[in-house]
Write a structure and sequence with these properties.
The protein is mostly beta strands and 371 residues long. Helix content is 6%, strand content 41%. It is built from 4 helices and 29 strands. The two termini are 25 Å apart.
């Protein structure tokens, strides 16, 4: 298990992306009336196809060409027929058996499709009488889900389960909310729970967990522990008010919580965490155990020179050569203005940006790891 004691590390004034990545590639996604994306809630890349989940705009899983960003199609559609869904919350891919699974959080159903032609195959109805899942992850012929309970939450609730893809029942439970998440199992905020990339075991973390767990054939085991005396406490979360009031109360403190945006590079691990309302970035060298962390990332691969207001880094997927980030739709206006103002570094893919305009779909940024 990797252990990072953040209190014993002097914060850096900033972190330059060029310290960890060698180059940047732009991938503008084709703006198509069939796929006007409101958000990029999840990205998975397989065989030169970008699979993108948008939960707020066009509400579905969409496919784009990895090389030129052209729109390839949509998987399923909203409706009540076979393979049609009400509210997609997540998806996961089984590369070995060429299957794709979509999770409908409203109906608590998982729809199975062929990965190649995206042909609908079957529906698995989860046993939602007692519990519900909002994130799913395939690994080694099993599908895992996060876990929330329909009854009033208790401190003995578990957060991770294995789902039986024939019956919809829960086969196994792991990770007591009391032991790993400060007793918090309230359902008010659906955050990304699983992080996966090709050839690596998937990782799992929830909002107030200070340890990232790794899923393997024997269940789960600790992967990375973030230590700090300022980590949020159970007492902090037991204040009066509804779940959102208790959560948002952390914004005015220096409490640490919310590990996310995990990326495993060639010889480093990157993730974010929150301190109050401030995001902090951590780069951990897996060989030397050195840690660099800062509240400011300087994207010197994107910008020609330093600016006062950088566009946020939002890593959402990685492979063995690099990591994918995206321009948040709310930041697309600023990004397009930057293109027209010529403040970005030019590279082989830069000309793809010249046709961007208001209303264009988001842009993916691919950062290649240094050798």
């Amino acid at each position: 298990m990797h252990i990072i004691d953040i209190d014993n590390i002097e914060p850096a004034s900033n972190i330059k992306l060029s310290s960890y990545f060698s180059s940047l590639e732009f991938i503008p996604l084709e703006t198509n009336n069939e796929a006007l994306l409101g958000r990029i809630n999840k990205l998975h890349v397989y065989n030169d196809t970008l699979f993108i989940l948008d939960k707020t705009g066009s509400k579905g899983v969409f496919m784009f060409n990895r090389r030129d960003g052209s729109f390839l199609g949509r998987i399923g559609s909203i409706g009540s027929g076979p393979g049609e869904y009400s509210s997609l919350e997540d998806f996961t891919i089984d590369i070995e058996n060429r299957r794709l699974y979509l999770l409908d959080s409203d109906r608590q159903q998982i729809y199975e499709y062929e990965l190649g032609g995206c042909k609908y195959l079957t529906t698995v109805s989860l046993n939602a009488k007692a519990n519900r899942s909002y994130n799913i992850q395939y690994w080694d012929n099993k599908v895992y889900g996060d876990l929330f309970f329909r009854r009033k939450s208790t401190k003995n609730d578990y957060m991770l389960c294995e789902l039986d893809m024939k019956t919809g029942e829960v086969n196994n439970f792991w990770l007591s909310a009391q032991q790993y998440n400060l007793g918090w199992s309230e359902l008010f905020f659906i955050n990304k729970a699983f992080y996966s990339q090709p050839s690596l075991k998937p990782k799992f973390v929830q909002l107030f967990m200070n340890v990232i767990m790794e899923i393997d054939n024997n269940g789960v085991s600790p992967f990375l522990l973030l230590k700090s005396k300022n980590w949020v406490s159970e007492e902090d979360l037991s204040q009066k008010g509804d779940p959102y009031e208790r959560y948002s109360g952390l914004f005015k403190t220096d409490r640490i919580y919310g590990i996310g945006d995990l990326l495993e590079g060639k010889d480093f691990i990157y993730f974010k965490y929150m301190e109050g309302m401030t995001p902090w970035h951590v780069f951990y060298n897996t060989k030397t155990k050195d840690v660099v962390h800062s509240s400011l990332v300087v994207n010197d691969l994107l910008y020609k020179k330093s600016v006062l207001d950088y566009i946020d880094i939002n890593f959402c997927f990685s492979d063995n050569k690099g990591g994918y980030s995206y321009i948040h739709p709310f930041a697309m206006g600023k990004f397009i203005e930057g293109v027209h103002s010529d403040i970005f570094n030019h590279n082989a893919s830069y000309n793809k940006l010249l046709d961007l305009k208001e209303g264009s779909n988001p842009v993916l940024l691919y950062y290649e790891y240094k050798d």
